[in-house]
Design a protein that fits this description.
With 138 residues, the protein is mostly beta strands. Helix content is 5%, strand content 37%. A hairpin with a 4-residue loop joins β8 and β9. It binds zinc ion (2 copies). The site of one zinc ion has 9 residues, from loops. The site of one zinc ion (ZN) has 9 residues, from loops.
Length: 138
C-alpha cells in the first residue's frame, strides 16, 4: 500500500495498520474526551475496512455513551480508539501513530466545553459543538 501508516499503544500490546489517506486531526474538547485523555482528544478517522488491529484482546472498550465506545490498552492505559456504534469508521488517536504520520490539524470541536486552563491559539476552525460532518457523542 502506498499510503500505509502504523501505530501502537505505549507498551506495544495493541498495534494497528491503516491503508489510504487519513482525515485531518480533529481536536475534541468535550468533557468526556478531557476526562478520558487527561487533556483533549486529537484524532483522525479511518474506515473500518482500512484498518487492521492486532492485539485486540488487550483492548478494553468503555461504553462511554449510547452512541459510542472508547478503546484503550488494558496493560498500559493508552487511549487509542473512539468507535461510534452505527458508523463504518473508527477514530484513532493521532498520538498513537508512528512518525511520519502525514497528519495535519483540521478543526476544534466542542470548544464550548473546553477546559479552563488552556487557550486555543492556532487558526483552525472552531465549533461550539460538533460539525455536521463529524458525529461526536455529547
Ligand atoms: Zn499497551
Ligand atoms: Zn469529545
Amino acid at each position: 500500500m502506498s499510503d500505509s501508516h502504523r501505530g501502537s499503544c505505549l507498551c506495544g500490546a495493541v498495534r494497528f495498520r491503516t491503508d489510504g489517506a487519513l482525515r485531518g486531526v480533529v481536536y475534541c474538547h468535550c468533557s468526556q474526551c478531557r476526562k478520558q485523555s487527561g487533556h483533549f482528544y486529537a484524532a483522525t478517522n479511518v474506515a473500518n475496512a482500512d484498518i487492521v488491529i492486532e492485539g485486540t484482546e488487550s483492548i478494553t472498550w468503555y461504553e462511554a455513551s449510547a452512541f459510542a465506545k472508547r478503546g484503550f490498552c488494558k496493560a498500559c492505559g493508552s487511549v487509542l480508539f473512539w468507535k461510534p456504534r452505527d458508523q463504518d469508521y473508527i477514530s484513532v488517536m493521532a498520538g498513537s501513530f508512528d512518525k511520519p504520520t502525514s497528519l495535519e490539524g483540521e478543526c476544534h470541536i466542542f470548544v464550548g466545553d473546553k477546559g479552563d486552563y488552556y487557550s486555543i491559539d492556532d487558526t483552525l476552525p472552531q465549533f461550539e459543538k460538533s460539525t455536521p460532518s463529524i458525529p461526536v457523542a455529547e
